[in-house]
Amino acid sequence: MATRLILDTDPGIDDALAILLLAASPEIILEAITVTHGNTTVDKCLANALKLADFAGLQGVPIARGASSPLVKSLTVAEETHGDGGLGYATLPDSKILVSPKSAVDTIIDLVHQYPNEITILAIGPLTNIALAIHKDPSIIKLIDRIVVMGGSIHFPGNMTPDCEYNVFCDPEAFDIVLRAGLDFTLVPLDVTYKCLFTKGHVAKLSDARPAVKTFIEDSTRFYMEFHDEYQSIDGCAINDPLAAAILIKPDLVELRDYYMTIELKGEHTKGKTSVDHYKVLGKPANAKVAMEVDVEGFMDFFIERVKTL
Ligand code: BDR
Ligand code: CA
Question: Which residue range forms the structural domain that includes residue 99?
Answer without folding.
Answer: 3-307
